[in-house]
Amino acid sequence: MNDDGGVILSTGAGAVITAPRRSVSRRRFQGIDLVLVGVSAALSLLGVVMVYTATRGALLATGLSPTYYLKRQLVWVALGLVAMVVMAVLDYRRLESLGMAVYGLFIFLLLAVLVPGLGKHALGSQRWFSLGPLQIQPSEFAVLALILAIATYCSRRREGLAWPDVLRVLVMGALPIALVIVQPDLGTGIIMAIVLLVMLAVAGLPTRILVLLIVGAVVVVVLALASGLLHHYQITRITSFLHQDSSNPSKAEQTALYNLTQAKNAIGAGGFWGTGLLHGAQTNLGYVPEQQTDFIFTAVGEQLGFVGSSIVLALLGLVAWRVLRAAQLARDSFGRLLCAGIFTFLAFSTFQNAGMSMGIMPITGIPLPFISYGGSAVLCFFIGVGVVVSVRRHRMPS
Predict the structure, then answer these.
(1) DSSP-assigned beta bridge partners for residue 19
(2) Which of 26, 141, 258, 385 is deepest in the core (most CB within 10 A)?
(3) Is the bond into 66 cis (omega within 30 degrees of 0)?
């Protein structure tokens, strides 16, 4: 080895070849999935534009700065990009030792946010912490914490999951799901339940047991709907897409159907090519409720049309596929389970958000990845992508 860290090779004929040694920094960034990183960043920038167009009209009408939400979203995207880079550089295997500690921390935060005076109450829910001008929603991060905890537990059961292990994992998932639903944040609770089932399947749970769990989950949902555990407005909101042609809707159904009708009208107004940025009447006049968050896909549909919407969904599908590919290439079960959970988180969020805007899925407060306004969601999706990049980087033994 020479002074520059290169390796000296002899050819046997007296010639000497110096092979430069890769620098530590170069090895650190080798193997990064540039497609996954680039598409995620591009979607987040498109999200900033969509948030601006969805909020500009209402802000101008009230005399506020039209860039209020745009600036906030830019800050969160910048923080998200930093978080993604940090997680991508970090060896994901170090997370295994932190899995249960992170899970415990977010159980504590989910309890704390329900305490009057600690958690902020708004729009009928108590699910945020206010940190000056910023708001943090622990339930979003709790999805990642649950993924990490399940991946940690299941990867340590190399002989497979026995019934006691399955029961422990179910309890591990039921606790944060219950705390999230109490807030209430039904959408995130649904995501957690689906993530739990998918990760158990990837962990090698026998099909017959998985089918029993799915049947049990359906029974629990039916009992929850029948027992009054959920608020009436939550039930109405979930089931309203099934009654779109009702001739005599109740007052609660009218409210839910109004939101859905406006969302569908906005998407339909975009036609094939869209009305163009800042030219959508439904978006400019604020007809669609919570358009910058829950119904951001309607802003995409109206202004960018069928073509633009298809491209956005295709890009989100590309992100999900790259995550799934990383799961296939993972060097161990821990990395594979992490990627499987993050894939489910991304894919179901995309399908659910776009589907509810088009009237084919229940209306739940699930954000569209990288597009919807909200710092907690943006950070979570970027952190998830960073973890996946790390798994792919370390797919080969050191």
Answers:
(1) 7
(2) 385
(3) no
> Exposed, middle or buried: residue 396 (CB in 10 Å: 0-12, 13-18, 19+)?
exposed
In this structure, are residues 151 and 345 in contact, taking their beta carbons and an 8 Å threshold? no
Distance CA 121, CA 128 (A): 7
Task: Tell which wins on pLDDT, 54 or 121.
Answer: 54
The encoded tokens of residue 100 equal 């249960």
Cα separation, 256 vs 249, in Å, equals 10
Burial class (CB within 10 angstroms; exposed 0-12, middle 13-18, buried 19+) of 40 = buried
Q: What gap in Å lies between CA 314 and CA 351, rounded to an integer?
A: 12
Amino acid identity at 265? N
- Residue 250 confidence (pLDDT): 65
Write the DSSP symbol of residue 23: P
CB 276 within 8 A of CB 303: yes
What pLDDT score was predicted for residue 3? Answer: 47
- CB distance 357 to 295 below 8 Å: yes
Q: What is the mean pLDDT of the chain?
A: 84
> Are the C-beta atoms of residues 113 and 126 closer than 8 Å to each other?
yes
Contact 280, 305 (CB under 8 A): no
Torsion angles phi and psi, residue 251, rounded to 5: -60, -40
Instruction: Say if residue 266's pLDDT is above 80.
Output: yes
Question: Long-range contacts: 328-333, Cβ < 8 Å, 24+?
Answer: 329/391, 329/392, 329/395, 330/391, 330/392, 330/395, 331/394, 331/395, 331/396, 331/397, 332/93, 332/155, 333/154, 333/155, 333/158, 333/203
Higher confidence at residue 365 or residue 331?
331
Q: 218 pLDDT band (50/70/90 cuts)?
A: confident
The residue among 364, 282, 308, 335 whose CA lies nearest residue 99 is: 335
Write the DSSP symbol of residue 230. Answer: S
Question: For residue 42, which of 329, 312, 360, 397 has the smallest C-alpha distance?
Answer: 312
CA distances from 176 to 138, 144, 307, 311 (A): 11, 11, 39, 35
Reference 335, options 298, 376, 388; nearest CA is 388
